Amino acid sequence: MELRHLRYFLAVAETLNFGRAATRLGIAQPPLSRQIQDLEAEIGTPLFHRTPRGVLLTDAGAVFAQRAMHILATSDDAVAEARDAGIGRGGRLVIGFVHSVAYSLLPRILPEFKRRHPRVAVSLREVTVQDKESALLSEQIDVGIFRPPPTHPEIVNFPVHEEGFVLALPAQHPLGRKRRIPAAALRDEPQILFRALRGDVGLRGTIAAFLREHGIPVKAAEEVGTIHAALGLVLAGAGVCIVPQTSSIVTIPGLVFRPFAEPTTRVTSTVCWRVQDRSVLVRAFRQHLREMYGGPLEAPGIPGAAGRTGRHDG
Fold this sequence. Notes:
The protein is built from nine helices and twelve strands. By secondary structure, the protein is an alpha/beta fold.
């Protein structure tokens, strides 16, 4: 049984006349009659009562008509979705992100992409910093929005944001009265630091580089895995914490953020994809980035992220 058999059958079921159905389909009546007979033989029961004035659906024909309409509608949808996916207007794009960009980059990048590609199903998946490279290379995700950038040679990094650090501290802390915090003021403060990650500089490494530059011991009063946890411990009075500047987007009663008096180590956020990925949807997302940020999208590496970008172990 082929889809054309269903179309032929529905044309006859709707017109209840082989001649009018043949005209609608643009074929001769004898071939149409043979196709319907072949269909009835394959099903094993008559679908029409033949009368001198035309035809009527049998009970089996009425049931089959409902199913046939559904099958054809589904097949038409499948064809439309496949065509849309082939030109980047449909399909599913899985975007991975690390928690530290959830407040800053996701709201900046995603809404306009989704507005321009309403038929693309965007699936968001939080990825740990430790798993950011493996998630891309194993094709669990199509695109990653990460900080700091992956370093694997099979991953392209397109920088979209570079920022420094601020100090998070309780609102009643004496340092909170200062507009800018001298780095030396941290010498006697209990510090909440991020855990060091094997093989990845992470936030711990970039912050440690800043502290060492100003002669501050890298010694943690507490260690955490996420910015959310760090801010919670600061609010609880466990210490102060150096966090990326975009963390100050979040307003938490009892918590304040202050910039440093000195330039801080900077960290780069990138959108990443596999070097060999030829997906139409990934290409559409890259085009969206080019329109937002400008610049080339093909060369691996982190162009423009030189200078004070952290590259230290910690």
